[in-house]
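Morning run. Coffee first, then this:
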Amino acid sequence: MVFPITVVTFAIYLGIAIVLSILALFTLVDAAKLLIAIPGSPAPTTALHVVLQAILFTIIIVEILETVLVYFRTSRILVRPILIAGITAMVRKVITMGVESFNAVDLLAIAVVIGVLTAAIIYVGKEEGETEAKGETSPP
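And here it is:
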């Protein structure tokens, strides 16, 4: 029996949503445990750094999960949450590595990537606003 592509796609997205939900819960619990452990830590600044990384990772997962959930509601994929996850990932990279470990070219490249992602978010927001103002829905 051949399944229609929409059923297969739906099943794949459902599996992804379940895995992302579980992963988001685990990372959130991990971030909470790390946050609770900060007062007793011998290096609270380092512990806070780790907590921030865990929280940003959770935000990335939630933004991707949001994309999947919107697909279930509208049968289309939104780009904005993916772009936000990209910016969050770049900020997390800088926080994880520390500014000191990058050379000027790497920092410039990261700044350009963040700028392009920000411009894309603004552009996508304008496109979505114009579509909603006209009362249209975007094609799937």
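Residues 5-37 form the longest helix (33 residues). Good start to the day.
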